[in-house]
Description:
Layout: H1 2-10, H2 12-23, H3 35-48, E1 52-56, E2 65-70, E3 79-85, E4 106-107, E5 110-112, H4 120-137, E6 143-149, H5 159-165, H6 167-170, E7 174-176, E8 181-182, E9 189-191, E10 193-205, E11 211-212, H7 222-230, H8 254-262, H9 267-274, H10 286-294, E12 297-305, E13 315-316, E14 319-328, H11 334-347, E15 354-361, E16 364-365, H12 371-384, E17 388-390, E18 393-396, H13 399-406, E19 410-411, E20 416-417, E21 428-430, H14 431-449
Parallel strand pairs: 3-6, 3-7, 7-19, 8-20, 9-17, 10-18
Antiparallel strand pairs: 1-2, 2-6, 4-5, 5-21, 10-14, 10-15, 10-16, 11-13, 12-14
Amino acid sequence: MKDVLRYVRDNSDDLIADLQRLIRQPSVSAKNEGIEECALLVSRMLKKSGINSQVLRLNKGVAPVVFGEVMSKKNPKQTLLFYNHYDVQPAEPFDLWDDDPFSGTVRGNRIFGRGSADDKGELITRIKAVEAFLKTTGDVPCNIKFVIEGEEETGSANIERYLKKFKKKFECDAVIWEFGYVDSKDRPVIGLGMKGLLYVELSAREPVRDAHSSLAVIIKNPAWRLIDALKTLRDSSGRILIDGWYDEVEKFSKTDLKLLADEPFDEVAFKKEYGISEFVNSKKGLDVKKALAGDPTCNIAGFLSGYTQQGAKTVLPSSATVKIDFRLVPKMDPKKQFARLQKHLRKNGFSDIGIKLYHGEAASRTDPSDPFVAQVKAAAKASFGSYVINVSNAGTGPMHSFASVLGAPCLSIGSTYIFSRIHSPNEFARIDLLKKTTQCMCHILNNFSHA
């Protein structure tokens, strides 16, 4: 391990250069911008590091998955899989970036650019860890596989199809997830799970065209119609009012509650970062952590209607649209929750409201007593000096698909500083955390092989 870790330290400039190379290749899945080019680039980078690689495809219009594999000579019976994604969020609004969002600019300890943290920086740490073993020992501690998709930022709509079609190729014993936060005190957060998601669009239409706003006394306004419907979905405390919404939700176990109580959360730093004075429903202490890990949500992601440009325009809009994301917790089935939403709207007199389903993903959690958890904890301790256990990330990814199709425990751990502005202008990755995480991945491989 000394030689392996020394290789990581001595080749940190290559890590930065490779990440810059990835950032400079746009790969915005929402706009299908550079997806094919980035997939091929990632495949070449795997091969350059000594990792066998294939670009896998389903059908036209579906982003390819990049597959990587290295078979261990001394331990061919254990397989660890790295799941990552090469696609990124749109960079708009461009005028809020200090540099070109696809420049990979380095300033001090930070490398800026769309995807620098989410998820190209994380991907590089995995690749460089494998490279370190291959370059110093000529082998890897266990079989290693990479599954790198190009649709994560748009909901991973096809990843389960890939998993089922290439199940034999993807077989593994454990999965390291595509990201991992590092908190404000530089402690890596080991995530045991992720919430699920139900993403929908509601729409209302009344006049055949926009009308003069003086006619609001006789023509119904579709924006108000949507607002009336939205007010029936949740109360001011955030509790969802749809019948049966919480029927399958289970209470936290004693083990979960202990982990939540022990998990540090800096409320002051969090509020300062986001410029807020209090949390929803004035939550404090343990209730904040319980909400992040285990409360379903009903969030308005966007509302569009009428005139929204500068100045005044007295108009009664002809249509209104709202996008909503519901975060789900274990045992909540996205299809069942969608049916409950449809029934709720009909029952409350909103049958005229159009509803479109964009995406559904179930929640997933790994048992904290799984041996893989102990191996990752030991690696985090060796690399960072300490760590934090997180019962469930408040965000969503296709973890349930991996856990159910491949039957393997999934854990997240990585290099993403919690305030690294992912999905926002001036996204950055901290170079010191990229180096430590690469070393951590080396320790994980070593610990996993000795289990």
